[in-house]
Specification:
Layout (H helix, E strand, L loop, with lengths): L2 E5 L3 H13 L3 E6 L2 H11 L3 E5 L8 H12 L3 E5 L4 H8 L5 E4 L4 H28 L4 E4 L5 E4 L1 H7 L3 H4 L4 H4 L2 H17 L1 E9 L5 E13 L2 E9 L5 E2 L24 E2 L5 E2 L1 H9 L9 H7 L15
Helix pairs in contact: 2-3
Length: 313
Amino acid sequence: MTKLLIADDEAIIAMQLSDYLTSAGYDVIGTVSSGEESLRAARKLSPDLILMDIIMPGGMDGIEAARKINRELDIPVIFLTSFADEKLVERAKSAGPYGYLLKPFTNKEIFASIEVALYRRRIEREIFRATMDETFDPLLVFSPEGELLEMNKQAETHLGYAKKDLIGISLRDLFTPETVEQADEAFRKTIALGGGRVQGFIATRTGSEIWVNVLFSLLHYGERKIVLGTIRDERAGRRAGPADKSADAFSSRPILICAACRKLCDDDGRWVRMEEYFKNHGDILFSHGLCPQCAHKLWPDMPPELYKDRPLP
């Protein structure tokens, strides 16, 4: 059953609205009369949708309350108001509402507004999840506080966990103890500067520890901020656990190479020589030499038997 919260300082309107919505099959989980109360109730009760009056007593009006709720809790809000002046409407738009109803409204109008808002929210979430699942990379979505909000199917496969087992855990619980501080630092950098990266171990469900390279990006999802964690390049393989003895040096992800200079694109977007790339991602060291073809181009007068079938140091 859809849970609704009503925020309106006009007691009669709130009561009538609550009675109608209850008879229409909704679960009215609370009525409040100020912006501050609506924010506290939203945090405590987690409604599916809030019907919010704009002009209410106290230091926080409905628009500011809706903005905070949207940013922090991602709960859709429909504004109810007797005012429609241009400046107020512009302020209301900044809070990202899912509807704007002028009082007095009919039962049919409020019912239609609620159903459209719920449908819009459902479609947005379906599109978001579908987009994540169509992406090649394993993806993790965190709140600005570090709570895991969402993950795609690729992340489930990569980490060996079902989504239901991880949603709601902290960033600190995802990484192994030796990597937690690095992850925290990268996450704080992302919140402050927009991006960060951590390389370290995540514990899988099998008990093994998998080396990951996670790129964090700060995104704005409507009024709300989220942190997208993209798991890239399983470079150092797994440390074997009780049910996992495999070790993979590299993931199957394609490596981007410049068709002209043959440099490789690193995870931070830098174009680097092949030697640097593989050293950074697999601890592979190179010893340089010359193939016979290149040796002949450089020293055409050198007798071929000196370098045939062996590299020159």
